[in-house]
Amino acid sequence: ERYVLKPPQTVRVGSKKVAWVNFSELCVMMKRPVEHVVQFVLAEFGTEGSIAGAATTRAEGAGADGQLILKGRYLPKHCESLLRKYIKEYVTCEMCKSANTVLKKDSSTRLSVVECSNCGAFRTAQSIKSGYHSVTRGDRRAAKQAKG
Hints:
By secondary structure, this protein is of the alpha+beta class. It is built from four helices and seven strands. The protein has helices at residues 23-30, 34-45, 76-90, 137-147; strands at residues 10-13, 17-20, 49-52, 67-71, 101-105, 112-116, 122-125. A four-stranded antiparallel sheet has the order 1-2-4-3, with no helix packed on it. A three-stranded antiparallel sheet has the order 5-6-7, with no helix packed on it.
């Protein structure tokens, strides 16, 4: 059985940002918490970002609800390859290849555990680690303003 998701939709916001429009919808389809997927995306892209429209109620701001705003220029193909990596790492069961899994947090070991609802197998998922972040001009300016 194949696991089919909608392709990620991205829209440029100005010249330096990108909005991933159907982000929360994809998280719901994968049955994963938005915070966890955001953490993964930001760590993998090595950038900053935030969820837009999360605070608005469904009735008034349903249009902007659940967009991920990323700093930088990313094409839909970049987001798609990242989504594939996330699904391989945190969604798919390695034993039966099913996507019918649950991500749990083991309280004693503080590790994420992927548990399959079909075959009952479970494995520990890698913790999300952010890569190297170089000091940019913006970082230096922020440090200078905080100091002075």
